[in-house]
Write a structure and sequence with these properties.
The protein has 105 residues and is an alpha+beta fold. The protein has two helices and six strands. The protein has one domain: Nuclear Transport Factor 2, Chain: A, CATH 3.10.450.
Length: 105
């Protein structure tokens, strides 16, 4: 990752680990928060599509939200912008309603 990577998971109600994270430290905190809030039973990339510095990865996951105990299954797409072998930008497309509902009390 570049030192000033921009990592984004679209905002979703009741999901406080969503948003924009700038820099390696904030991205590390994002992943720690994900681990604190979820039990993943599956996280699998299915397809990789590349065009120069742009990469899209399509995949799926199954996770249980620790606060609610609800399990969600979700397909996702990750967009990456790479430069000189480092990630400059990451954006995740996901079913934010599915994620929100898993965290609902």
């Amino acid at each position: 990752m570049s030192d000033n990577i921009e990592w984004e998971l679209p905002k979703s109600a009741r999901v406080d680990f969503s948003g924009v994270f700038i820099g390696k430290e904030q991205v590390l905190n994002f992943f720690q928060h994900i681990a604190d809030e979820n039990d993943f039973t599956e996280f699998s990339p299915d397809t990789f599509i590349a065009d120069g510095e742009h990469v899209v990865v399509l995949g799926h996951l199954t996770a249980t939200a620790k606060p609610s105990g609800r399990t969600s299954s979700n397909k996702w797409a990750h967009y990456w912008l790479l430069k000189d072998g480092k990630a400059l930008k990451h954006y995740e497309y996901a079913d934010t309603a599915e994620i929100r509902d898993a965290f609902a009390s």
